[in-house]
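Worked example 2:
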Amino acid sequence: MTSSAPSSRDRLLVLGCGFGGYSLLLDLDRELYDVALVSPRNYFLFTPLLPSAASGTVELRSILEPVRRRLSGIRMIEGTVESLDLTARRAAGRAAVGGEEFELPFDLLVVAVGARVTDYGIPGVAEHALQAASIEDAQAIRRAVLEQFAQAELPGLAPEEVARRLTFVVCGGGPTGVEVAAELEDLLADDMKRSHPATAHLARVVLLEAGERLLSSYDEALSEYTREHFERERIEVRTGVPVVRVWRESVRLEDGETIDCGRVIWAGGNGPLPLTRTIAPEGSPQGRIPVDDYLRLPGRGDIWALGDCAALGDPPLPATAQVAQQQGKYLARALNRRARGRQVKPFRFRPLGMLAYVGAGRALIQTSAGQWTGRGAWLLWRSIYLTKLVSFSNKVKVLFDWFKARVFGRDISRF
């Protein structure tokens, strides 16, 4: 199937609707270009609150923004681009619904496809571990916890077997792994303790990190604060323990130890998507696409890359939501100026600090102005994320979700 839309304007093709692509399209003057967006999902996902959605602290739909409702004046194709002919300026892909093949011509191209969770080649991760990168992943984690509790309530089980079924191993001590572990412990200590009083005291969360400390990109004092806080909250932290094999109900460590559990959640680092590999030169940092200070591919004035799939600087900027969002907003302004024949300035990243929720109404914040921990940091963490949500409707829904979870508890219905 071949699709084309005749227009006197440049045909701008945007691949991906994460923080980079969505921010670009929100700020772009869409009257200046004939815009097409290709994304396998028809919504923007506010990923910083995904761990909260996995535990039921916020509802899944509260962190989704329907693209077609928010972005008027663009053509959206729900699918995935699988190959690019940069010489002929054509993209070939496959529909997300139905699997039909399609082609799209373009004059200008923006690659903002993000990244995938990498398994580092560890056997069993792809087949058996749950992840925390999508709405489907959050649903799966929430369902898995409830299913394990249902299985642990069966009569005749030894306490050791109950404890195994209610052990949840989180692999990865970065921000995602830390927040998933924190949200899980909140769910276990609050809602599951009330609904399953006979078994909840045997439940536990184990957080594994291959490096020597949690949150390695944060200041060491914040890393130590997180470890001490987790120990008080009964989260078992193991650092310096690389995982070498994963099964559905156990993980093996490099030293030969095997940890039996109910489910494994993998929160490893980022890796390139197949399309990114076809564009990035061999040996590029983390398989990302090198770009110049204007987010352009070297030697190309018609192709840009941004977000987690792009590598800007040496060392490259981190693959975080704030980097992708700033790059998207910058590129929107740059394309607006380009279409009007105005000069474009290079991109400059302005670090706004780093946040992490560590459970029990505590968070940590690191900025150039200082560091904060505890309940005050948690209130600021919530305030910042509330302001960062794109639409007013989602701000209201998330605020109401927090209120419901606080007053009535999380929904623990299994469906």
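The two ends are 38 Å apart (CA to CA). DSSP finds twelve helices and 24 strands in the chain.
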